Amino acid sequence: MSQHTSGLAIETAGLVKTFGETRAVDGVDLSVPAGTVYGVLGPNGAGKTTTVKMLATLLRPDGGEAHVFGHDVVREADQVRSLVSLTGQYASVDEDLTGTENLVLLGRLLGHGKHAARERAGQLLEAFGLAEAAGKQVKNYSGGMRRRIDIAASILNTPDLLFLDEPTTGLDPRSRNQVWDIVRAVVAQGTTVLLTTQYLDEADQLASRIAVIDRGKVIAEGTKGELKASVGAGSVHLRLRDPAQRSLAADLLVRALDAHVQPEPDPVALTARLGTAASDDTAAEQAARALNELARAGITVDNFSLGQPSLDEVFLALTGHDTHDSRDADDKKDEVAA
Amino acid sequence: MSTATTTEGRDLAPVSTESLAALLIAKERPPRPSAWSASLTFGWRAVLKIKHVPEQLFDVTAFPIMMVLMYTYLFGGALAGSPKEYIQFLLPGILVMSVVMITMYTGVSVNTDIEKGVFDRFRSLPIWRPSTMVGYLLGDALRYTIASVVMLTVGIILGYRPDGGFGGVVAGIALLIVFSFAFSWIWTMFGLMLRSEKSVMGVSMMVIFPLTFLSNVFVDPKTMPGWLQAFVNNSPITHLSSAVRELMAGQWPADEIAWSLGWAGLFVLVFGPITMRLYNRK
């Protein structure tokens, strides 16, 4: 295992990649501590995949520097390659080959002997619940199975750094949970994971630090707590019985919670984004107080829910535009998989 | 897609995080494979693909048979008096022509393959960089061998009798395969350079038809106009088909062999580095 003096798995400074006129990655600075899951959160086309590809030595940066465990990704690409594994948005395995053949092929390329490669392939397929599908061509696998074989291929040798590029995009909730379990198991053994995702929820579940990236730039970075505090505690969604009471309810909420209140298309519904001003209280406490105020004013609430800030809300708060706008500044690679 | 995923997801065995953890503890890494071993592994991948999709052998079985039959009976009577006499001259040449033509499929398969996710993984492995490409060519060498054996078999059925015997035939085929392996670096270059399968096919045809037809495969160049002779006599395909023809006839054409191998070396030296440059840039 290589140890780097600063304890950083990834360190980038002013990383830039341009595709023609588009600056897909536009001066990204990242510091990823070793042994943690680091989330890179952003919409399609934000530059996540391009950043990962530069760090995994697949693309040459046009500007700036990047080091992986202290090794320069351009000048010492070979050392970097021996420490990292990459799982792309699409399955990075050969679809024409079977699960076993794929793992044996990669095992051999990593230097295992015939016997050792077969043994390791068998063990991994077993651990990933793919023993039955081992002899089937990967093109016949379901989405969840593909992700599993893909991650299995990435840990044939336990990597020091694992890139997971949107590992759960397009998966059903059950398969998604299983991928999360795998990520937790991998990081528990000391591997650093760089996870890109479009879902705040996913970054929240897995990552200890998160960078929010938009139009090729890091627009916010910090622990989950810091990030959430910067966008407020969450949102309260209300459905009233009487549409006539909606504007009164909105006034009350603004006063009581210092919240930003937004009417919904449905005439009885409104959403209040809880502000940061009253952030000593938890979101639940603020919500309870809101309900109280409404009850005292004689407003009947039919339905009530408290939600975490969504990625859309994080974006709105951080950039002043919503996630969809970012598509204008898309980089091609992200868009293809979208 | 999403419904299929859900239903299959339910039947799927759960992930065993305990055994996974046990597997992850092993942190020793074997030494990286040698250039040759990595290339052979990629060659094995090519063979596995043939195993899963055997139809792709059509171009190295049916196409060569067609070539032998067509040209033997089309030109045989007019050029040499009878098909049986003509095939003595034609077979080594048509063998060279067909195998060299088949090499162009390498470009197509590189082009379709390179866009797939698996290439990102190959390119992020700490291995000898050209081994991916060499692997293709090793797999293709197997296809060339199959094509050669098929054509010789058909030729022998039609009356071809090589004076060089088994040894001469094997030597001729070996030279042909070495040349084709080297020549294929042109196609790996086009496969990486051009954007679509169709453009690869188009460009390949533009190169391969003049190159193979403007040679001594079908007739002796003596009857050609002077300017054409100048081209034909110096074409690598002419050198190669002369060398193969004479080897199979039991002679040792040192000059022609040297010319063929010289051209082969030149192809690797020029197109190999261009291919790898494009590969690293992808």
Keywords:
heterodimer, A: alpha/beta, Rossmann fold, Alpha-Beta Plaits, 6-stranded mixed β-sheet, 4-stranded antiparallel β-sheet, 14 strands, 37% helix, disordered C terminus, B: 282 residues, mainly alpha, 0% strand, elongated
Describe this structure as you would to a colleague.
The complex is a heterodimer of chains A (338) and B (282). Chain A is α/β, with parallel strands linked by helices and 338 residues long. Chain A has 2 domains: 8-229, P-loop containing nucleotide triphosphate hydrolases (Rossmann fold, 3-Layer(aba) Sandwich), CATH 3.40.50; 233-308, 2-Layer Sandwich (Alpha-Beta Plaits), CATH 3.30.70. Chain A is 37% helix and 26% strand. In chain A, the strands form 3 sheets. In chain A, strands 6-7-8-3-9-10 form a 6-stranded mixed β-sheet, sandwiched between helices. In chain A, strand 4 (63-68) and strand 5 (71-72) form a beta hairpin. The longest helix of chain A is centred in the middle third of the chain and has 16 residues, at 173-188. The two termini of chain A are 36 Å apart. With 282 residues, chain B is mainly alpha-helical. Chain B has one domain. The interface between A and B is large, with 67 and 49 residues.
Give me the CATH superfamily of the largest domain in chain A: P-loop containing nucleotide triphosphate hydrolases
Distance from N terminus to C terminus of chain A (CA atoms, Å) equals 36 Å
What is the C-alpha radius of gyration of chain B, as a whole number of Å?
23 Å
- The low-confidence parts of chain B are 1-9
**N-to-C SSE string of chain B, H for helix and E for strand:** HHHHHHHHHHHHHH
| Largest beta-sheet details of chain B | none
Globally, the shape of chain A reads: elongated
Question: How many extended strands of chain A?
Answer: 14
Helix percentage range of chain B: over 70%
Strand content of chain B: under 5%
List how many beta strands of chain B DSSP finds: 0
* Number of structural domains of chain B: 1
> How much helical structure, as a percent, in the residues of chain A?
25-40%
**Assembly state (oligomeric):** heterodimer
The main β sheet of chain A shows up as:
6 strands, mixed
Structural class of chain A: alpha/beta
Q: What is Rg of chain A?
A: 23 Å
Domain ABC transmembrane type-2 (chain B): 55-282
Subcellular location (chain B): Cell membrane
Membrane topology (chain B): Multi-pass membrane protein
Transmembrane segments (chain B): 57-80, 86-108, 141-160, 166-187, 199-219, 257-279
